[in-house]
Automatic annotation (TrEMBL):
Lineage, opening ranks: Bacteria, Bacillati, Actinomycetota, Actinomycetes, Bifidobacteriales
Originating species: Bifidobacterium aemilianum
Gene Ontology CC: cytoplasm
NCBIfam families the record matches: lysidine_TilS_N
Transmembrane segment boundaries: none
Database matches in Gene3D superfamilies: 1.20.59.20, HUPs (3.40.50.620)
Reactions performed catalytically: cytidine(34) in tRNA(Ile2) + L-lysine + ATP = lysidine(34) in tRNA(Ile2) + AMP + diphosphate + H(+)
Full protein name: tRNA(Ile)-lysidine synthase
Gene of this entry: tilS
Domain tRNA(Ile)-lysidine/2-thiocytidine synthase N-terminal: 45-214
């Protein structure tokens, strides 16, 4: 097997990812030649594997890298039951994973509800729920996802259409926690071409999801009923790369990682201001770092109590002295902590109560909430 530069990058990134999660070499013996079985209670790393090229490459490398560190490595394979023959695809993927030495290999069958958010979103939700449950049941230390730089570029383009501001270009975080389970994406520096190359380097077979449009004619756009991500991958990104004549995928992915750092810093600043200037009832802790969602590091709740706070009060004078970017971030985080959707027109109107106060009336918010200023305090609560 040729030890290609893409293999070196992938192995290096995988090792750094594991190390950043506290999963380094368990014992010097594992770094020496010869086969060493990891201890039965060694930390467990699980690869979420669809059987596609990216996750097959990740499964194979995780098996090797974990063995060299004394870690246990297994896989979780989710059958969404959305396509004919999906059980067979999942079964074949499980066989491949077992032949790579992964153990445990667990098949998870989920039911995807036809929710209003669309089939893709419902499938993703069901998948993450199943992955979290299985990881908890196995007391796994980490779940790895095989998203690549190509996926990251597509995500930025998708998010640009659905949200605005800095948060729309941060892409997917390299790691996040979901319901107490740690997830990481070690392949965010590799393109899909490179993961495909790694599969060839290692002689791995993979399965192409027909809804990805991988085999479709490059000269013809995919029909509009294909998933948006597939259409961006097949039509929009190649067109844009052609148009700009450069490596837009790398550019978008790099921008996402810079924007994510800026966003993290702004979040920390906003969090500190929350502690100083925002009070919740019943009391909510806002001192902890915010949780992140699987697909991005977007603003989420400011860690409310289990029941969630019902009312908030913002010290208007203290916040008025801040930069508008910080004011809006604090307002948005306060709304999220109350479980309210964040719409820019509401954030803007509350900001006017803070920075441009001239006796305005209350602002009506969703779920029966309102925001009103009394003296130097903005109260966000349900109408009485
Ligand atoms: N059915 C599944 N079972 C387990 N994990 C999955 C499944 N589908 C997706 N994943 C995880 O989420 C990542 C991203 O999903 P996505 O749908 O973009 O990938 P894919 O094109 O289906 O497969 P691959 O990334 O393996 O080529 C996958 O790389 C994999 O880690």
């Amino acid at each position: 097997m040729a030890y290609s530069s893409r293999l070196r990058t992938a192995i290096g990134d995988l090792k750094s990812c594991l190390k950043s999660q506290g999963l380094g070499l368990q014992d010097p013996a594992f770094a020496q030649h010869g086969s060493h079985e990891p201890l039965p209670d060694a930390p467990l790393v699980l690869v979420a594997c669809s059987g596609g090229r990216d996750s097959m490459a990740l499964a194979a490398l995780t098996s090797t890298v974990c063995a060299s560190l004394g870690l246990r490595a297994g896989t979780l394979i989710v059958d969404h039951g959305l396509q004919e023959g999906s059980a067979q695809v999942a079964d074949q993927c499980a066989q491949h994973c077992r032949s790579l030495g992964l153990d445990p290999v667990q098949l998870l069958t989920v039911r995807v509800a036809q929710a209003g958010s669309g089939l893709e979103a419902s499938a993703r939700q069901a998948r993450y729920q199943a992955l979290v449950q299985a990881a908890k049941a196995k007391t796994a230390d980490l779940v790895l996802l095989a998203h690549t730089k190509s996926d990251q570029a597509e995500t930025v383009l998708m998010d640009l259409m659905h949200s605005s501001g800095l948060d729309s270009i941060t892409g997917m975080p390299a790691s996040f926690r979901l319901d107490g389970v740690s997830f990481a994406r070690p392949f965010l520096r590799l393109t899909r071409e490179e993961t495909t190359g790694i599969c060839s380097d290692l002689g791995l077979e993979w399965w192409d999801d027909p809804s990805n449009g991988d085999g479709a004619d490059a000269g013809h756009p995919l029909p509009v009923d294909y998933p948006l991500r597939s259409r961006i991958r097949h039509d929009l990104l190649p067109y844009m790369e052609d148009f700009f004549g450069g490596d837009l995928t790398s550019h978008l992915a790099h921008s996402a990682s810079l924007a994510a750092q800026d966003q993290e810093y702004l979040e920390q600043q906003a969090q500190e201001l929350m502690v100083r200037l925002v009070g919740f009832e019943p009391l909510a802790s806002v001192a902890q770092s915010p949780t992140t969602s699987p697909n991005s590091a977007k603003l989420t709740t400011a860690a409310p109590t289990s029941a969630g706070p019902q009312a908030a009060s913002i010290q208007a004078r203290g916040l008025a002295a801040q930069h508008p970017a910080m004011r809006r971030r604090v307002i948005a985080k306060t709304m999220l902590a109350l479980g309210l959707p964040v719409l820019s027109r509401h954030v803007e109107a509350i900001d006017q109560l803070i920075a441009n106060w001239h006796g305005q009336g209350p602002i009506h918010l969703p779920s029966g909430y309102s925001a009103a200023r009394q003296k130097h305090v903005i109260h966000l609560c349900k109408y009485r």
